[in-house]
Write a structure and sequence with these properties.
Helix content is 12%, strand content 51%. The radius of gyration is 17 Å and the shape is globular. The chain has a single domain, classed as Lipocalin. Strand 2 and strand 3 form a beta hairpin. It starts with a helix and ends with a strand. It has 138 residues and is mostly beta strands. It has an eight-stranded antiparallel β-barrel with strand order 1-2-3-4-5-6-7-8.
């Protein structure tokens, strides 16, 4: 009997941890790294829909360069969201594609931005930049 209760508790705990966070809303994160960040990406604005078991869609504005983009390849696992976004503004290295890794805790977000294709200039290729911020009312 005791083992059955323990197993029930463990199953319930796993089910609670498997629930995806709700990311719907308008978010703004600002650079919080240990040194000066990329000069064109002091902040990132995200407009997201989904999570909480449904697919995540939306747009992201990655500073003034590379600019706004629809999110692609979004995956939500618990409180962790990953996606890619290809900017709209090119440079001498081309138009960058960035990978976003975000952890959501209620109305707070910790986000890592990495240029995975055509990085250059202020966004060093494959270099992670950390941002922190919140869901903001519209």
């Amino acid at each position: 009997m005791r083992i059955a209760k323990l197993l029930s508790c463990l199953i319930a705990l796993c089910a609670v941890n498997a629930v995806a966070a709700d990311v719907t809303g308008h978010w703004k994160v600002t650079y919080s790294g240990p040194e000066a960040g990329p000069k064109t990406v002091g902040s990132i604005v995200l407009d997201l829909k989904g999570g909480d078991g449904s697919p995540v869609t939306g747009t992201v504005k990655i500073g003034v360069w590379p600019g706004g983009a629809p999110i692609a390849e979004a995956r939500m696992e618990g409180d962790h969201l990953t996606f890619t976004a290809t900017g709209v503004l090119g440079s001498t290295t081309g138009i960058p594609t960035c990978r976003i890794d975000a952890t959501i805790k209620g109305d707070e977000m910790i986000l890592t931005l990495t240029a995975i294709r055509n990085g250059g200039g202020p966004l060093g290729p494959n270099y992670p930049y950390e941002y922190r911020g919140k869901r903001i009312p519209q």
